[in-house]
Amino acid sequence: MEKSFDCRMRALGSTSENDAELPVRMGDVGRSYTMRYRRLGDVDDLEKSLEYKCRALTVSPHEHPDLSDRQADLGVSYGDRYRRIGGMADLEKSIEYKSRGLLFTPDDHPDLPDRHAALGASYTDRYRRMGDIADLEKSIEYKSRALALTPDGHPDLPGRHAALGVSYGDRYRRTGDMVDLEKAIEHFSRALALTPDCHPDLPDRHAAIGASYGNRYRRMGDVADLERNGRHGRPGEVNRIQLSRAGTDSDGHPDLPGRHAALGVSYGDRYRRTGDMVDLEKAIEHFSRALALTPDGHPDLPDRHAAIGASYGNRYRRMGDVADLEKSIEYKSRALALTPDGHPDLPGRHAALGASYSDQYRRMGNMADLEKSIEYKSRALALTPDGHPDLPGRHAALGHHTYQHTGHPSHLDACLTSFRHSSRLSSAAPRDVFDYTLRWANLASQYSYLNPLGAFRAALDVLPHFIWLGATTAQRYANLALTENLAIRAGAAATRSSEYGTGLEWLEHGRVYRLEPDPDASQLDQTNSGAPGSRSDNDALGLRYRLAREYTDLLTQARSLPGFEDFLRPPKATGLMRVARHGPVVVINCSEDDCDALVILPGQDRVGHVSLPGYTESKATHARSEIEQLLHNKGFRERGFKLKGGRIKQPDPDVGLVLADLWKDIVKPVLEYLGYLTNHTVDQMPHITWCPTGALTFLPLHAAGDYDQPGSRVFDHVISSYTPTLTALLASAPTVPRRAPRLLAVGQMATSGYSQLPGTARELASIRAHAHNRAEYSQLTGSKATSTAVLDAMEEHDWVHLACHAHQNVTDPTKSGFFLHDGRLDLAAITRQSFKSKGLAFLSACQTATGDEKLPDEAIHLASGMLMGYRSVIATMWSVIDEDAPVVADMVYSRLLKDGNVGRGEAGRALHAAVARLREKVESGTLRDGCPNTNWNFGAEASTSVS
């Protein structure tokens, strides 16, 4: 480089003032100074570069064909000086000269892509300095054009993709539009794929894509993105290689501060992910070195102060050392002071400093710190432009902080107003907006004079965006655990306000959980086979998000049409009243403070209400614990358990008390309200469909009763069925069969690792006998009962009977399933088949109607999943004694196959009669007696459209 520089200087020295080559020689010298500046970072070289390039342009004839080159070159040097010194005049000149250079560049000129790219970079600089989104749009426009003009295989192609990814990332951070984030990921992925190993830009490529995955994780919450962020963003060997290439701190290389800063970011990201203090210390070390190496007046100086201030804040919150908090405030204050007015980072600087003063107020209790915190947070909010994704958070932070730390009633209204603003802004991450609405609801619920209904309505409106169709089933399931029983609390609040219809809607809207399975990997591969530049670690998630957005856009279009305003929206109370086609449906809402029954009656247009003050959520939780303990002690955890010691005693007194409390506090008051406390024959007995919420979903309402008092058991008066949601009943409208049903029976007598089920042979034999001349009967047992064979047969049959072991997966409910010859047939595979208008599913296995205790308000289990395709499901809340199952199945099918019809309560009536007969056999000694399983396990028919 020095030899080239020396030759060019000598050539220029021997060129006369009138020589036509003078502009060329001056331009060459200017470019040499640029090269040396970029290598060594000496500002004098930068100044010399500008001097010679300006002279080259000045002495160039106006019509000279190289004029555009001179202008573009000069624009590059002004851009270099702006990035070094930060003077806006230099940035404006850079844009001016680059624009002129591009204007006079012919369409077929080989430098045309470079000219577009350079101008796009300057518009990025101006956007980041001034915050004008028009500059960001121009940046994307010019960078896109540069990419389109760069041929495949060109060495600049990775950089073009990376630069465009930067601008899309900037626009995502400004607008919160997920499409921009997806485009950023796409271009960063392509840039990384095209960058050779050991290329000096490789660490930047990894860091960029890792940061984008981190942004998507914070937006959507998918753990897969967090793992990708870790893979790409870890401060690995490649980062250290690049740092070493930039030289030692004493070398003064201009890239060295940026390399230290980038490495600090990587360590900081890993600290936030792992909590390892070593990473935090490394982040502080590298941020400190970056700051020390950044010259005064450099435009990155505010960022350097802000980064180290944030790291000291993290260390204070971890270790509690006040000295770290003081340093955090010192560096953040300096960052704010160095940030010019109008800079897009200015609101964030105010917000960060306000957060540190808030920490100091909590530690020291000094009101002056509280006032400073409120001052800076107020300023941050005022400076944040409309539509910015940080706006909701700043509203929430200011409101919540103000009231939380003063407790003054005058601040309460301001706090609630802030939360209202936060909930109405769609630019932020849905999970954040949902958190704001939940905090609003929590705060409003604390005071009797405040109406929390608006807050709950806002939270429920956000819920579909938080529990998003684009997320994986496992992620939606995990997000549900964060909703804090929202539907229960909202329904209770509405009920307390006598808004029974609203309470019914909210309970339903908040509890409906769609068990859409993840697409097969093969389907994703086929879909992506024609997608150019796709990367394997992003295909599935990116495709899912794109399809979900397309689905949402189509819904929006449909709802814009007259008459389709409520297309695929959750039903209103008037629509939900239709579920009681053939008998009452009783929704029981059990919250922390209240228990109420909302009653839907056939032909009625108003929701009935029964207050149940004797029961609460804590009582229900304790009752479930008692039952679970009994089942554990007795070994009633799976079908086929052995009864040890001959006879098993009656349920422990505590469980008897559980059933008595359910009767006294819940079931009996409801039956009194309905006028059902009378005796009927089975054929005349009324049918109730129970829809419990919260912890009540684990309790056997169908077995409630005082077993020491005659006529004081629920099954003495009514036939009970369950539904996980009211929507399931609306979707299970019965149809009149046009032919005899086709019945599939599946049995597994022996499953590796599980107890033998000899009763399945007798069970299927009795079903076959009843099906003779009444139904088309098919059977799959033993080695023939594979997952594929069973699924195919289910498609061809109306009814299915599954007699085997089952498993309830509490981590991912779609992985719950039935154990067949070749493994587990899970719910995801079943729901992927999209069965339509099926009749009966009889799940003769253990715990097929038991959900997840972490989500007591979500009836997510095998029975509710089967309701997606079957009108009626018979399932069990607990384990099935192997010798009982054939008895119950025999009695159920003897009634059902008389007319082959289900869906109007016939399945519930048949099951009620079957369990009654079983109970008589136990009480008479015909079967072993006393097992609590017999009294209240069967009867958990998950849902039926009752008659």
UniProtKB/TrEMBL annotation:
Residues 517-538 are annotated as: Disordered. Residues 660-920 form the CHAT domain. SUPFAM superfamilies: TPR-like (SSF48452). InterPro entries: CHAT_dom, TPR-like_helical_dom_sf. This is TPR-like protein. It comes from Rhizoctonia solani. The lineage of its organism: Eukaryota, Fungi, Dikarya, Basidiomycota, Agaricomycotina.
